[in-house]
Amino acid sequence: MNNLPALFLNFPKMKITIITICFNNQRDIRATIESVINQSYSDIEYIIKDGGSTDGTMGIVNEYKDKIAKIISCPDRGIYDALNQGIDAATGDVVGFIHAGDRLFAPNTIEEIAKFHSENDVDISYGNSQTIAENGHVVRCNYSPRKPYKLWMDFGWMPSHMSMYAKKYVYDKYGKFRLDMGVAGDYEWFLRTFYKHRANIKIKCLDTFVLYFSLGGASSNDGLNKIQRKQREMLNACWKANGLKPIPGLVYARLYWGARIIMRCKFDKLFGRL
Question: What is the pTM of this model?
Answer without folding.
Answer: 0.83
